[in-house]
Design brief:
The complex is a heterodimer. By secondary structure, chain A is α/β, with parallel strands linked by helices. Helices cover 46% and strands 10% of the residues of chain A. Chain A has a domain at 70-242: Diaminopimelate Epimerase, Chain A, domain 1 (Roll), CATH 3.10.310.50. Chain B is an alpha/beta fold. Chain B folds into 2 domains: 7-150, Diaminopimelate Epimerase, Chain A, domain 1; 164-188, no CATH class. In chain B, helix 1 links the parallel strand 2 and strand 3 (42-47). The chains are: A alpha/beta, B alpha/beta. The interface between A and B is large, with 36 and 57 residues. Strand 7 (302-310) of chain A pairs antiparallel with strand 6 (92-98) of chain B, so a sheet runs across the interface.
């Protein structure tokens, strides 16, 4: 029993001589000092000083993180929304420098010359908000129902993701909401390629100009159908511009058009003649002249014994299988 | 060899049973079409096994002379018939035609028609081959008919009966020799 108690009890740890221990401490290290002790094992020190690797915030995150919006001052509202702007770029607050404004206006004017859909851009500050009593849709309906179709952009300088686009009521039905959204998203994506707010705006406009080409394709016919309300002068100018915009028609000389028309007419005539001929053929009846033929071979009605062909072998052409030969006479 | 009596049959008689129902309709339509486009004529098809001793030429000749085609109008006699016989057992087919077509049709033409079906019949696609063959027949008949209208004498000469020798002597005595006589007389002198 006493032996079992002895076996269960833990052996005692060796004890340090205090002088020796102090000596070892001074030398800097005591072997097994962490394990051979009754004190709890100290926790490892967390790494201090190594910087965390965190991605820098993107332009959009910075924009989103900004403070809540400030409404556009009332003094500018009339300049923004009172009437249809004469320039394609609307910046009464002077957020853009004159030179930048000039460049962007020139680009938008150039776009207007080439496209059947104008782009009007209203520029606001990064944190600005349009007052609640101003309804953007209503503005577009009021100002852009008459005249050349337009795409209106409410653009927030430095925060392209907040932009909104609206189309003239004439072409709203032709361009689906999904397509409008796609155009906006792709333009925003292009804008985010840069950090500079003005460069963002330029990239945004370039991409939007490209997207309006596809909108034009969708609106072909629709826009013209909705032009009853447009004044005659404006309508003529629009149609004239649209006609010029078609490169194929511009490049085709007169003789080519004439040749094409002649070719189409000739094809039509050939087709008509062919149809008539086929119709006539199908209705035509054929009668053979009847001659007196001397009966032969004792046949009262027929003696015209024609060809016989055999179709027993695919290896031999029909011309060599003209005589009927019974199977038992063929070589195996 | 095949018998003396009349044989009642239809324009499509599938005794060998090689056509499906839809195929029968297809072939019957084609036969009817020939009958409509050539109002004097009719086409018929017989399928059956003739046995080892059977000769397809002889059988076609016999059947067209002895056959009574029940679904063919009476104003179209067998003289105006074209008969295609197919023997699926001996894997052979033949074509016979009546006296009406004698001036216009030759063995080469019948071979031309039958050979159109050759590749189909090799694969056992009898109806398809038959339709191809009948289409070719229709085209050939149409061409021959147009040529015959343009130059009927050419075809008439082909089947003209030979002039009897007695008639020729009578003509000479009457002083109206044929074109060949003066040449012969000159040779004798």
């Amino acid at each position: 029993m006493s032996q079992m108690v002895f076996a269960n009890s833990e052996p005692l740890l060796p004890e340090w001589d205090s002088a020796e221990r102090e000596k070892m401490k001074k030398e800097g290290w005591i072997a097994g000092s962490i394990l051979l002790t009754y004190e709890s094992i100290p926790e490892e020190n967390p790494e201090v000083g190594s910087p965390l690797k965190v991605e820098a915030p993107t332009a959009s995150e910075i924009a989103e993180d900004s403070e809540s919006g400030i409404e556009v001052s009332e003094e500018y509202l009339a300049d923004y929304f009172a009437e249809k702007p004469k320039e394609h770029l609307v910046d009464p607050q002077g957020l853009l420098e004159e030179r930048q404004k000039k460049d962007l206006s020139a680009f938008l004017s150039h776009h207007a010359k080439d496209s059947s859909i104008d782009i009007y851009i209203y520029v606001f500050g990064t944190n600005q908000e349009i007052p609640g009593d101003v309804r953007e849709e209503e503005i577009v309906e009021r100002l852009y129902s008459v005249g050349k179709p337009a795409l209106v952009v409410y653009y927030y300088l430095g925060a392209p993701q907040r932009s909104d686009i609206y189309l003239s009521p004439i072409i709203t039905d032709a361009v689906s909401a999904a397509e409008q959204n796609r155009a906006l998203q792709s333009s925003v994506m292009r804008a985010f390629a840069s950090v500079n707010p003005v460069e963002q705006l330029e990239a945004f406009l370039v991409q939007m100009s490209i997207r309006t080409y596809w909108m034009e394709r969708m609106t072909e016919g629709t826009a013209e159908a909705g032009m009853e309300m447009i004044p005659e002068g404006e309508k003529a100018r629009y149609l004239n511009k649209k006609a010029k915009a078609s490169p194929e028609e511009m490049e085709l000389p007169g003789w080519v058009k004439l040749a094409a028309a002649s070719l189409i007419a000739a094809c039509g005539a050939i087709l008509a003649i062919w149809s008539a001929r086929m119709c006539w053929h199908s209705k035509q009846r054929y009668r053979f002249p009847e001659f007196e033929v001397e009966p032969r071979l004792g046949g009262n009605h027929a003696a015209g014994v024609g060809a016989v062909i055999s179709f027993s072998s695919s290896a031999v052409p029909p011309a060599r299988q003209r005589d009927q030969v019974p199977n038992y006479m063929r070589r195996a | 060899m095949f018998g003396d009596g009349e044989v009642k049959l239809r324009s499509l008689t599938d005794a060998a049973g090689i056509f499906r129902r839809s195929e029968r309709e297809q072939v019957e339509d084609m036969l009817a079409r020939i009958g409509v486009r050539f109002p004097q004529m009719f086409a018929a098809v017989y399928t059956g096994s003739l046995g080892e001793t059977g000769n397809l030429r002889q059988f076609g000749f016999w059947l067209l002379n002895r056959g009574v085609f029940e679904d063919v109008p009476v104003e179209k006699p067998n003289e105006a018939g074209i008969l295609i016989v197919i023997d699926p057992d001996s894997k052979a087919a033949g074509m016979s035609f009546g006296y009406l077509l004698d001036p216009f049709f030759e063995e080469e033409d019948t071979f031309d028609c039958l050979s159109r079906a050759h590749s189909y019949w090799l694969e056992g696609r009898y109806a398809e081959g038959l339709v191809k063959s009948l289409l070719r027949l229709e085209k050939l008949l149409r061409k021959r008919c147009q040529l015959a209208k343009r130059d009927p004498e050419k075809y008439e000469r082909k089947v003209a009966m030979p002039v009897a020798v007695e008639d020729l002597v009578k003509k000479i005595r009457r002083g109206k020799p044929s074109a060949a006589i003066p040449v012969e007389q000159e040779v004798e002198r």
